[in-house]
Amino acid sequence: MTTNTDRIDSIDLRAVVLAAGKGTRLQSEKSDLPKVMRRAAGRPLLGWVLDKISFVDPSHTVIVVGYKAEAVQSEIGAAYQYALQEEQLGTGHAVQMAMPALANFEGPVLICYGDMPLISESTYRNLFSTHIREGNACTMLAYISDKDLGYGRIVRDDQGIFKAVVEDRDCTPEQKNITELNAGVYVFDAAWLREGLNLLQNNNAQGEYYLTDVPTWIQSQGGRIGIQGTTGEFEGIGVNTQEDLDLVNKLLA
Question: Whole-prediction pTM value?
Answer without folding.
Answer: 0.93
